[in-house]
Amino acid sequence: MGxxxxxxxxxPRGLFTLFFTEMWERFSYYGMRVLLVLYMTQYLFLxxxxxxxxxxxxxxxxxxxxxxxxxxxxxxSSQIYGLYTGLVYFTPFFGGIxxxxxIGQRRSVYIGGFLMAIGHFLMAxxxxxxxxxxxxxxxxxxxxxxxxxxxxGLYAQGDSRRDGAYTIFYMGINLGAILSPLICGTLGQKVxxxxxxxxxxxxxxxxxxxxxxxxxxxxxxEHKKSIKEVEATAHKPMTREEWTRTIALTFLCMxxxxxxxxxxxxxxxxxxxxxxxxDWNFFGWEIxxxxxxxxxxxxxxxxxxxxxxxxxWQAKFGKAPSTVTKMALGCVLGAVALVVMYFAAKIxxxxxxxxxxxxxxxxxxxxxxxxxxxxGLSVVTKVSPAKIVSMMMGVWFLAAFFGNYVAGYVGMFxxxxxxxxxxxxxxxxxxxxxxxxxxCHKFLTQALGKEI
Length: 452
Hints:
Helices cover 75% and strands 2% of the residues. By secondary structure, it is mainly alpha-helical. The strands form two sheets. A two-stranded antiparallel ribbon has the order 1-2. The protein is globular, with a radius of gyration of 21 Å.
């Protein structure tokens, strides 16, 4: 698919339709996620222990107990957080295949968006907590890989604007993530949990309205193909070069698993640290601890354009780091971020400490993310064989699935390990993929193409 001929700020107008669609979808996702662990640990599972009927709770508790033994409310909440956020990234693999072979990207986005809206509103019914999560998981599977892939579809092969487009798109994601803790988090903590979840549902409906009315700016190529034509293209055998690229790209995606296991602690154990061991009193006003989760996307919105310009300047002089080097540096930065939390735990102990510890660590973790996530999205659309590009976007999210599960599993040890040792463990987990990226740099650049 080629670029849209109508441009705004040097990019196709369709980019800004996708920007605002993703912004409000991410508002809804992060609005729900920012409350999830606190909702489970401070209310829902405590109520369940006192006999409140929550469909599926007893069964899931029994299954998790079989594998992990008796768990505290915090440990079980961490497991469910990891399973939910992991499955949110698992289903896009299948959503990408369905879009590639059968229904197309546009229909997939509509199906996914409305399923997620239903899930957000079901969160207002306490007994339907787990069915609500299921709607969100399945809906995201249809939505996520196909909205991201459409960004790449706005640009012709070799268009130098593609990396910049994904950075702009990533800013849309994070603008929604800035707003959601301030609105959904405040409503959930100060007014009522269900008000926060309801606000997330409204955000999802806004996302779908923008996508529908801005659809005229998006490429129409896929609608010109019949389902038989799409299937015929999908079943053509791949060349040896395409297989090599696919294998190398899959390896690159999978190496990020441990990084995502560390990164996703922001909504899990780092949110618990923010709530329990951070002083949020400013001149007598107690700021909701969920506001902490606005800092990560705020840093992205402020620094993503600066990094984009830095990389463009480096490219101009032939000194830009390769995609693999950028991702390796991101993993190392993630390790440094958790070393900051290690020292925080040493100094704060069991009391409450300055918010600057948390913000300093999150700043470094966010810079790490900027060296990994938008770059990874871009390289998937650059080097994936055209007939499986949505599926390969699903592979990228599949790595995040495993990473999110790692986040939930490791988070179980938050109460039982010393806090300093816990943060040090996370630092090591982030360092491992960085070492692998450096070690495999030559293989990956040869297989994927030196232009990455």
